[in-house]
Amino acid sequence: MDALNNPLKDLVYSLMGTGPGAEVLIDVLGILSVSTFCLLIVIFLIWLERKVIARIQDRIGPNRVGGRFGLLQTVADVLKLLTKEAVTPAGADWVAYNLAPFLIVMSALLMWAVMPFTATWVGVDLNIGLFYILSISSVSVVCLLLAGWGSNNKYALLGAFRSVAQLVSYEVPMVLSLLVPIILARSMSLNTISESQVVWYALVVPMSALIFFISAAAETGRTPFDLLEAESEIVAGFHVEYG
């Protein structure tokens, strides 16, 4: 793994020397470092999203846990969820019901493997990095169907069908918008695309960036594309039986 190339390799080689054991340890440390960073940044981004939405709606937002700005609100929410009892519905398929959330989390973490933090701090510099991300993100379609079907709940299954339909619909414009940076950089490597941007491609081709932003918001089910969880129709959607 190329992640944290220089500092990790120098440290491990100085302690263990070169060899297969050192290479395995470098890979493990790189995976743990990237995974830890992903989880930490998600905690911050959830807090940031809640504060921004609160400001838009003329509210304060999180302001209780972790000081006046509520910096530890997401941590408190995570601890609350971890301490809740895990219940599997009586008629649910145990394997599918429990496998779907695991696969969704893994697919989200695997996408960070090719994200270049700097020119050398990158998990794996694939020459098809952008195609890899699109492929991994497509796994979520199967996971949503698995969650809806495994729950043995009509609302969950209907929500899964609706989610899959929305994901597949917005996948096409998102892929087409991503062809622009590929053509401009003449590469599918995220590292190459990043280094080739003398001026951000979002400023060079703003229409493509706008299409990608809208498609990405729809793919993740963010407002106003939150029809996946329409409470008046399908309760909480595909995850109605979870937690």
Fold and architecture overview:
The protein is an all-alpha fold and 243 residues long. The chain folds into 2 domains: 1-84; 89-243, no CATH class. It contains 10 helices and no strands. The protein is globular, with a radius of gyration of 21 Å. It starts with a helix and ends in a 9-residue tail after the last helix.
As a whole number of angstroms, the C-alpha radius of gyration is 21 Å
Multimeric status of the protein? single chain
Helix percent reads: 55-70%
The overall number of domains is 2
Helix-and-strand structural type? mainly alpha
Determine the strand fraction and express it as a percent band.
under 5%
Lay out the secondary structure.
Elements: H1 5-16, H2 20-56, H3 73-83, H4 94-110, H5 129-150, H6 154-185, H7 190-195, H8 201-204, H9 206-219, H10 231-234
Summarize the structure.
This protein is mainly α and 243 residues long.
Structural key phrases:
mainly alpha; 243 residues; 65% helix
